[in-house]
């Protein structure tokens, strides 16, 4: 490490502030722990700074969290890997604090350090630490211990390995559900490091215990273990030992466990392989799709496409499709919404004929759903729809839905549909768009809600980009220019906003010939808000138009505005004038 | 402690333990004669922790006071144990540990409502790292507290001179000194320690109505809070979201006929909880069944006693408190006139019913007039499940033997002399719908107590020590403890 080259005084302040009463200052010092360590040098860091930190682990959680994070990358500052063990004591005490996020960070950092430590150091200091934590009096220590076994286990002697396995098995049966939950969460990681000979015997026994735990909260974490362990086991063992567990879980009394199965379904299928998926998991999945708890159906419905990808089309049509039909008329809007967001992905799997025969009716009924979320989810996947059923069929059913959504009474729904208009435009093509949607786009500019007007203006810009300036010149610009004469000043302002957004897309020529005269005219508006928006708009036009236009028209208009009676108008006019001067200086 | 296995004890009804002889043990905050009780000092919640080594009380002023057991917290040396066997009855003794301001008065600006600071309920959570944790709630906001002995720290030996004149030579010469030996780490010296309470989390804005109960789950990570119409499920670590698991709010508030009065988790089954209603029913729900537990898995109701309906029947049926017994098989409930013990495997009716203050029956009209009929008395059950206690007026509370065949009853007054009023209150436990002659005996009660019953001194809050025969109860601002 380099010798001290920073001035010492700031360091001294940093060190003092490690114990300042102000938490912000302490936090600041802890975050710059590496600076302090560099100033102290490796030896003093080992002998003084680290012990100092170990003794002061009753600080505020924020400080402890920062400390736990810093220590994880501290190996270079204590003199490299051979001294890494000095970092363990402070992290060990952080592993026992009550705040979960601090503990998790400390465990993280310990894993980082442990994985770099030399084998002998690991045995001498890391493994004893894990054992101490695992035997801790309070559950916090034991919870932390669960996350460290996978690091400790590697590079251990056989005797120690046996001991670690038996300790872990004790943690799986701890009195405290919190500890058992931690053991269940980390079982997969630990199992990945254990030799396969012990996997079948010992690890699977622990796993079996956890899957039978009386606490729902433990069992539902064991569901994730199914996927993790399944990948480690030989296929036949997996089928013999994991598959029955998954099938059982899918019929668990607790809906939260079934929910986890539905959520993890794809990973579970991967673990057991395609054959078992077809034979055993299809019935399980069908049950989940028909679960009496809506939350479970939501999770299951969201996995329809991924699951069908694992099956062949016949099985999908035979078993899954009937459920999908039921779900499309489910009593819970959230279930229908989840289905709507993925159902289009089924089209390529089923092929065109089956899609038109089976999927299209479902799709159309979802498009007419009474809840806007459901319809929006369908529309957002429009490109996929188009590919499969073609634009004609689509537009017949789609347009009424879109028009309805565009006039929905919830402005967030209107906002969402505006976001999709450019996508729609690209899919439908120019001709189609002109007839049906052009009017809507203009209507949004005069919406009652500002966000919608703003989004509408932005939409015009995106349409101009999509279809090109010429099209915009014909279909958008005249209406926008018309709006500048609107009696309502908010609408006039929105027209100016649209102009400022469209100008860069339309280019210099159209801006000068069409927009600029209108803007200059607007600078004589009687409402100050319009006038200072004109000033802002003119400022934004400066880079677009020629210098001559700036000098001739824009500057004069701004000078007029800078003498306006209203202070805001003068302010923005002057801002714009400054930027003209700035641009001129930059050019010269 | 008595009775390692409750089931056995309860089953062995033949050999009854002799009736307990209650004695005064301690009092905190005793009122001297003629002293006015300040409303803010009135105790509004009492709770022992799971070990019985700590006791918490909450008051109308939003304060939580903790007491610590003094007689049981020494190292369990073998010799000491042997010595103690010479003194068979050692009753628990508590001393003041600390207090803190849990809630402050607040104002809901949206609804123009004052939010009282009064502590409605206190529940202890899992002890960890030598610190105590508890939840306290007022009408709207639940708070999670950590109480820990903190060392008082002194920091010395810092680099910068406090006077700021010379930085200990570091900047004296203006040139950065290359010798880092001048840098010193602060030295922290600590001596005595004192309990410090710190609010770890606040769970706000989840209740439209007044919170009447909180209960911690056996899974150690969740708890519920119940108001008049809804029960919410929280994760202890997440304070900004909760899940609504029970909602009894009808579509139109005019249709409202029943409100939730209390809710409690089963002591061992993390998926089960019970809640009681103002109509006198108790519902057991299973969280595994569905996310929104609108349908109960079991309903416990007193079968309608034909005929005897009056204007007050419905009002006095309202359950004011429910408590699971330690093992979770039995459930105790209190309504205005009675204490009932239920077996959760038997939903046809209560196992037994105990009349708390039968002699008030003729006076229901007066009690209605002065609103006393809406008083919410709490109840508690002993750790071994053999006895239960609940409060009444005139600072009296009653203890009943609840094991089958037991006829034990006791009436105590929350004072230094609990047996002062030795009143033969008519209250043999009456099984299923009490057919007791009441006329003469209840008259005797009134005759015995010279002064008329005092409705203002009511004993609402009390708690039974989890593993000893010791009861803590609140009389106004005073905490009385009795043991047997």
UniProtKB/TrEMBL annotation, chain A:
InterPro entries the UniProt entry points to: ARM-like, ARM-type_fold, HEAT, HEAT_type_2, PP2A/SF3B1-like_HEAT, PP2A_Regulatory_Subunit_A
Q: Which family does it belong to?
A: Belongs to the phosphatase 2A regulatory subunit A family.
Q: Which Pfam family would be a valid example here?
A: PPP2R1A-like_HEAT
Task: Enumerate the spans annotated as Phosphatase PP2A regulatory subunit A/Splicing factor 3B subunit 1-like HEAT repeat domain.
Answer: 274-351
Record key words, sorted: Repeat
Sequence ranges of the HEAT repeats:
10-48, 164-202, 203-241, 242-280, 281-319, 320-358, 359-397, 398-436, 476-514, 515-553
Taxonomic source organism = Brassica carinata
State the Gene Ontology terms under molecular function: protein phosphatase regulator activity
Q: Which residues form a coiled coil?
A: none
- The identity of this protein, by name, is Phosphatase PP2A regulatory subunit A/Splicing factor 3B subunit 1-like HEAT repeat domain-containing protein
Repeat listed as a keyword: yes
Sorted alphabetically, the Gene Ontology cellular component annotations on this record are: cytosol; nucleus; protein phosphatase type 2A complex
Q: Does the keyword Repeat apply?
A: yes
Automatic annotation (TrEMBL), chain B:
Protein role:
The B regulatory subunit may modulate substrate selectivity and catalytic activity, and may also direct the localization of the catalytic enzyme to a particular subcellular compartment.
Q: How does it assemble?
A: PP2A consists of a common heteromeric enzyme, composed of a catalytic subunit (subunits C), a constant regulatory subunit (subunit A), and a variety of regulatory subunits such as subunits B (the R2/B/PR55/B55, R3/B''/PR72/PR130/PR59 and R5/B'/B56 families). Interacts with SIC/RON3.
Gene Ontology CC entries for this record: protein phosphatase type 2A complex
Return the protein name: Serine/threonine-protein phosphatase 2A 55 kDa regulatory subunit B
Q: Which organism is it from?
A: Brassica carinata
Q: Which protein family is it in?
A: Belongs to the phosphatase 2A regulatory subunit B family.
**Signal peptide position in this chain?**
none
Q: Which domain of life is it from?
A: Eukaryota
Q: Which SUPFAM superfamilies match?
A: WD40 repeat-like
Q: Name the UniProt key words of this record, in alphabetical order.
A: Repeat, WD repeat
Q: Name one Pfam family in it.
A: WD40
The entry lists its GO molecular-function terms as:
protein phosphatase regulator activity
């Amino acid at each position: 490490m380099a010798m001290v080259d920073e001035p010492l005084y700031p360091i001294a302040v940093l060190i003092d502030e490690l114990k300042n009463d102000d938490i912000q200052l302490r936090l600041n010092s802890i975050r710059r722990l590496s600076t302090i360590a560099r100033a102290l040098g490796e030896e003093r860091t080992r002998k003084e700074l680290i012990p100092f930190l170990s003794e002061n682990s009753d600080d505020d959680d924020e400080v402890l969290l920062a400390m736990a994070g810093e220590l994880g990358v501290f190996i270079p500052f204590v003199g490299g890997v051979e001294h890494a063990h000095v970092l363990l004591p402070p992290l060990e005490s952080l592993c026992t604090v009550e705040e979960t996020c601090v503990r998790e960070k400390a465990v993280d950092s310990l894993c980082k350090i442990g994985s770099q430590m030399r084998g002998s150091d690991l045995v001498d200091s890391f493994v004893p630490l894990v054992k101490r934590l695992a035997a801790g009096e309070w559950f916090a220590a034991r919870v932390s211990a669960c996350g460290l076994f996978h690091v400790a286990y590697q590079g251990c002697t056989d005797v120690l390995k046996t001991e670690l396995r038996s300790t872990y098995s004790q943690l799986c049966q701890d009195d405290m559900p919190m500890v058992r939950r931690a053991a269940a969460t980390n079982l997969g990681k630990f199992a990945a490091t254990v030799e396969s000979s012990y996997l079948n015997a010992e690890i699977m026994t622990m796993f079996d215990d956890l899957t039978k735990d009386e606490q729902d909260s433990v069992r539902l974490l064991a569901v994730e273990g199914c996927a993790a362990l399944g990948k480690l086991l030989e296929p036949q063992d997996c089928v013999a030992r994991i598959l029955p567990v998954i099938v059982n879980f899918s019929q668990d009394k607790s809906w939260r466990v079934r929910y986890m199965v539905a959520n993890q379904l794809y990973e579970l299928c991967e673990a057991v392989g395609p054959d078992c998926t077809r034979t055993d998991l299809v019935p399980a999945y069908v049950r989940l799709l028909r679960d009496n708890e809506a939350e479970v159906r939501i999770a299951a419905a969201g996995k329809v496409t991924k699951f069908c990808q694992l099956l062949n089309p016949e099985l999908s049509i035979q078993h899954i499709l009937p459920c999908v039909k039921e779900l499309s008329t489910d009593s819970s809007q959230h279930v229908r919404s989840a289905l709507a967001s993925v159902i289009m992905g089924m089209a390529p799997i089923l092929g065109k004929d089956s899609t038109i025969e089976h999927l299209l009716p479902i799709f159309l009924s979802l498009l007419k759903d009474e809840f806007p979320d459901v319809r929006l989810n369908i529309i957002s996947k429009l490109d996929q729809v188009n590919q499969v059923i073609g634009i004609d069929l689509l537009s017949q059913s789609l347009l009424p839905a879109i028009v309805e959504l565009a006039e929905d009474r919830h402005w967030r729904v209107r906002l969402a549909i505006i976001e999709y208009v450019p996508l729609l435009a690209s899919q439908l093509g120019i001709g189609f768009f002109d007839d049906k949607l052009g009017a809507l786009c203009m209507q949004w500019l005069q919406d009652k809600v500002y966000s919608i007007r703003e989004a509408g203006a932005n939409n015009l810009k995106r349409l101009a980009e999509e279809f090109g300036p010429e099209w915009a010149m014909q279909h958008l610009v005249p209406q926008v220019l018309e709006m500048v004469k609107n009696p309502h000043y908010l609408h006039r302002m929105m027209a100016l906003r649209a102009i400022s957004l469209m100008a860069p897309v339309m280019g210099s020529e159209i801006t000068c010939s069409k927009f600029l005269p209108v803007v200059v005219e607007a600078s004589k508006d009687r409402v100050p808000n319009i006038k200072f928006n004109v000033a802002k708009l003119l400022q934004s036009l400066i880079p677009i138009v020629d210098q001559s236009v700036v000098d001739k028209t824009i500057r004069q208009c701004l000078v007029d505005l800078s003498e306006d009676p209203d202070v805001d108008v003068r302010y923005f006019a002057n801002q714009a004038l400054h930027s003209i001067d700035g641009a001129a200086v930059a050019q010269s | 402690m008595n009775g390692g296995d409750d089931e056995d004890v309860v089953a062995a009804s033949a050999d009854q333990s002799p009736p307990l002889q209650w004695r005064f043990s301690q009092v905190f905050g005793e009122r001297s004669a003629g002293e006015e009780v300040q409303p803010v000092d009135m105790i509004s919640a009492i709770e022992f922790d799971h070990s019985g080594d700590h006791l918490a009380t909450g008051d109308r002023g939003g304060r939580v006071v903790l007491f610590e057991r003094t007689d049981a917290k020494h190292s369990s040396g073998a010799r000491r144990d042997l010595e103690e066997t010479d003194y068979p009855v050692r009753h628990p003794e508590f001393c003041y540990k600390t207090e803190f301001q849990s809630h402050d008065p607040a104002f809901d600006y949206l609804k123009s409502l004052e939010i009282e600071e009064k502590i409605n309920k206190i529940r202890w959570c899992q002890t960890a790292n030598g610190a105590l944790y508890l939840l306290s709630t007022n009408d709207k906001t639940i708070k999670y507290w950590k109480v820990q002995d903190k060392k008082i720290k002194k920091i010395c030996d810092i680099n910068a001179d406090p006077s700021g004149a010379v930085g200990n030579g570091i900047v004296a010469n203006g040139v950065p000194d290359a010798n880092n030996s001048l840098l010193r780490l602060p030295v922290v010296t600590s001596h005595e320690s004192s309990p410090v309470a710190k609010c770890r989390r606040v769970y706000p804005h989840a209740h439209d109505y007044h919170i009447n109960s909180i209960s911690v789950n056996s899974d150690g990570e969740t708890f519920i809070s119940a108001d008049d119409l809804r029960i919410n499920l929280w994760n202890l670590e997440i304070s900004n979201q909760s899940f609504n698991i029970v909602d009894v709010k009808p579509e139109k508030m005019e249709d409202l006929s029943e409100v939730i009065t209390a809710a409690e988790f089963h002591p061992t089954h993390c998926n089960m909880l019970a809640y009681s209603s103002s109509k006198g029913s108790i519902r057991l729900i299973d969280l595994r069944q569905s996310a929104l537990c609108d349908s109960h898995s079991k309903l416990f109701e007193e079968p309608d006693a034909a005929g005897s309906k009056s204007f007050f029947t419905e009002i006095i049926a309202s359950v004011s408190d429910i408590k699971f017994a330690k093992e979770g098989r039995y459930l105790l409930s209190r309504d205005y006139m009675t204490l009932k013990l239920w077996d959760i495997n038997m939903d046809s009716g209560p196992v037994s019913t105990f009349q708390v203050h039968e002699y008030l029956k003729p006076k229901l009209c007066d009690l209605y007039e002065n609103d006393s009929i809406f008083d919410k008395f709490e109840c508690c059950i002993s750790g071994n499940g053999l006895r239960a206690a609940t409060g009444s007026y005139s600072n009296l509370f009653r203890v009943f033997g609840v094991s089958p065949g037991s006829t034990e009853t006791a009436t105590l007054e929350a004072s230094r002399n609990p047996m002062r009023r030795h009143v033969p209150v008519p209250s043999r436990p009456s099984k299923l719908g009490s057919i007791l002659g009441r006329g003469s005996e209840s008259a005797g009660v009134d005759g015995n107590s010279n002064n008329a019953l005092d409705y203002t001194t009511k004993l609402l809050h009390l708690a039974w020590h989890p593993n000893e025969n010791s009861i803590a109860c609140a009389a106004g601002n005073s905490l009385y403890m009795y043991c047997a």
